[in-house]
Amino acid sequence: MEEILKNSKTSSSSSFSVLVNDQEKMNKKIDELIATLPVDSEGSVPLYQLKGCWYPFFAIRGNIAADLHFQAQDSDIFLASPPKSGTTWMKALIFSIVNRNRHPPNENPLLTTHPQNLIQYIEFRHYLNGNIPENLDQLPKPRLFATHSHYASLPHSITHSSCRIVYICRNPLDTFVSLYHFLRSSEKIQQDMDATYEKYCRGTIHFGPFWDNILGYWRASLEKQEKVLFMKYEDLKEDIVFEMKRLAKFLGFPFSVEEENEGLVEEISRLCSFENLKNLEVNRTHKPYREGGVSANAFYRKGEVGDFVNHLNPSMVENLMKITQEKFAGSGLVFKYSLDKLQNS
Ligand code: PAP
C-alpha cells in the first residue's frame, strides 16, 4: 500500500492531494489493490488480507482509502483494539475524559448517544466503502477516531504523525467468546461455535490474527511510549481509577488534584460502567445504534472477566492457551483470565 502511496506522490503531475482527493481515481486504485489481495471466503463474510491483517469486506476499502487520503493531526487521538476487547467502554471513557470541561458527567452526551456514535471507526465509518469524508476538519479538537486495524496496516499518516494511540485488548478466551456472540447477533447468520473457533485459532477472523493485532501495538508501545498506550480490559476491571488516571495523563488531559479530591474520576467511571451504560435507554434498545447497524444492545452482553468458562470446553481452553503461549513467547505479555486468579498466558 505504501508503494501505491509513493507512486501516487511521484506519478501525479499536479499534486498528491489532487490525485487522492478524486473519488474516481481513489476507487480505481482501491479496486486494483484489492484484486491482488489474498481472500478468505470460508466464513460468513469475505476477508481480505492486507499487511498481515484480515479485513472484513466492509472495512478493506475504507482502510485503503484512509491510507491514501487521511491526514492525521498531531492532536488526534486514536483508539485501537481487536474486536470485542472493551472498545465501547474505552470510547465512553476517552470521550468523557477529553470533553469533561465541555460536558460535565450529568450533561454528558453518553446519556443519550451510543458510545459507538461518539467515536467512529476510520475504516468502516468515516471512509466506509472507500468514500472520502467531507467533514473531518469540522470535528471538535482533539479529533477522536477508532480502528480495529493492526499497527502495521494503519493508514500511513497515523503512524507518521505525532497523534496518540490508545490500545485496548483482552485475554484471548473472553475475546473469542464475546466475538462469537456478537457475530451471531450482528451477522444474523447461525454461527457454528466450532467453525468460528477454528477460524479464530487460524487467525482468519475479522481483524485477526488476534495475536498479531496485539503484538504490533505491544511492540510499538514499548518503542514509542509517548505515542502508544497499551491497556488491558482486565486491568480496567481490577482498578478503574488507577487506569483512568494513566489514560488521562497519556491523552494530555490529566486529572488535577482538585478534580481527584472532588471525586470526578470515580464519577466518570460510574457513568461509563457496564451497569450504567447497559441500562440507559439509548443502549438497551433492540433498535440499531445507527442506520443499518446492529442492535444498540449487542455491544453489552456480560462485561465480565472469565466468562469463557461458561462457553468453552477444556480442550478449547487448553488449545487457545497453548497458541497464545507460543505466539507471545518472549514478548513479556501476560493476561489475566479471571480477577481472583492470575494465570500467565
Ligand atoms: P466492538 O469491538 O464491537 O466495539 P467491544 O466494545 O470491544 O466491541 O466489546 C464488547 C465487549 O465489551 C462485550 O463483552 P462480553 O461479550 O464479554 O460481555 C461487552 O459486554 C463489553 N462491554 C461493553 N461496555 C462495557 C463497559 N462499560 N464495561 C465493561 N465491559 C463492557
From TrEMBL:
InterPro entries (alphabetical): P-loop_NTPase, Sulfotransferase_dom
**Where's the Sulfotransferase domain?**
74-332
Q: Name one GO molecular function term.
A: sulfotransferase activity
Q: What keywords would UniProt list here?
A: Transferase
Transferase keyword on record = yes
Span-the-membrane segments of this chain are none
Keyword flag Transferase: yes
| UniProt EC number | 2.8.2.-
Family that this chain belongs to? Belongs to the sulfotransferase 1 family.
Q: What name does UniProt use for this protein? A: Sulfotransferase
- Which organism is this entry from? Rhamnella rubrinervis
Starting at the broadest rank, the lineage of the source organism is: Eukaryota, Viridiplantae, Streptophyta, Embryophyta, Tracheophyta
